[in-house]
Amino acid sequence: MNTAPPRDSGELTFRDATDADVPALVELIQSAYRGDSSRTGWTTEADILQGQRIDPQGVRAVVENPGSRLLVVERDGGPVACCQLEHRGEAAYFGMFAVRPSLQGGGLGKVIIAEAERTARESWGVREMHMTVISVRDDLIAWYERRGYRRTGQMSPFPYGDERFGIPQRDDLAFELLVKDLPTD
């Protein structure tokens, strides 16, 4: 008889990451976007990028940046998701968003992004949330549009040649800025 609780039975907790979280967060982010494990979920970039998605130095830089927060989302004592918030004047930047692939598609992402928006508004009084998404990720962009984000058409180049961000499998990658107006209280 299996007495283990269902995978989504525990309550979610949100907290700021510490240096001790870096290895687990690198693994979580990598698993959500690259390699065969990422194919379990729908956020995989495995067909457009190979190699690493993030390295420990990149995660640590966010954890240690006084203008950023890296939220760890835990359930039953273990990390199931994370996201970066960075204060940029009147806006906050949302990035490094990862949900464990086996938990994707069940509504967890909606809960996390709503909490991230609330946290950014309450922490910094920002009026907008900004993010960049690889422009060829139509399914992901559509998901963010359903959450109220709008495409701006403003592009920035993909860092070709810098393997810290992966090894591109196509030559048309760029980042598009998405923006959402946050309600004011």
Largest sheet: 7 strands, mixed
Helix content: 25-40%
Structural class: alpha+beta
Span between N and C termini?
50 Å
Chain-averaged pLDDT: 91
Percent strand? 25-35%
Strand order of the largest sheet: 1-3-4-5-6-9-7
Anisotropy-based shape: globular
Secondary-structure element order, N to C: EHHEHEEEHEHEEE
* Rg calculated over all Cα atoms: 16 Å
Supply the number of helical segments.
5
Unreliable parts: 1-7
- How many runs of DSSP E, i.e. beta strands? 9
Short précis:
The chain has 185 residues and is of the alpha+beta class. It is built from 5 helices and 9 strands; from the N terminus they run βααβαβββαβαβββ. The strands form 2 sheets. Strands 1-3-4-5-6-9-7 form a 7-stranded mixed beta sheet, sandwiched between helices. Strands 2-8 form a two-stranded antiparallel ribbon.
Characterise the protein shown here:
With 185 residues, this protein is α+β, with helices and mostly antiparallel strands. The chain has five helices and nine strands; from the N terminus they run βααβαβββαβαβββ. The chain has a seven-stranded mixed beta sheet, sandwiched between helices. Strands 2-8 form a two-stranded antiparallel ribbon. Helix 4 links the parallel strand 5 and strand 6. Helix 1 crosses helix 3.
For this entry, give a set of tags.
185 residues, alpha+beta, seven-stranded mixed sheet, two-stranded antiparallel ribbon
